[in-house]
From TrEMBL:
Protein's recorded name: Sjogren syndrome nuclear autoantigen 1
Protein species of origin: Oryzias sinensis (Chinese medaka)
InterPro entries xrefs: SSNA1_fam
Entry keyword Cytoplasm: no
Keywords, in A-Z order: Coiled coil
Entry GO CC: axon; centrosome; ciliary basal body
Annotated coiled-coil segments of the chain: 12-60
GO process annotations (BP): axon extension
Recorded superkingdom: Eukaryota
Keyword Coiled coil listed: yes
Amino acid sequence: MTQQAAALQTYNNELVKCIEDLYSKREELNRQIKLEEEEKERLQHDIQILSEKLNRVEKSLAQRLAARATFDRTIAETETAYTKILESSQSLLSVLKQEAGNLSRATEPRRKEH
């Protein structure tokens, strides 16, 4: 019976050691889980902050794009109007030169013809 008692004691010791190992592994796993949960919280917080920044940038970008479109439209309209003014100025200058020439001929003394 002493051999059985010794064997039983050996089994008991091994069982206790296995259980202690399981507890140790469980504690390590709990530590890893806690670290990952903390990392998850940090990442979720970062995502929230970045999402808010993204929304602000998108809104600002939309406003700037609209302003640029207004600038482009104003520039195009101004250039068109300026081109029309140049064309009108050229026409006016041409007419003015023609009229000045006509007036000069009309006011020149007439030559006598023999």
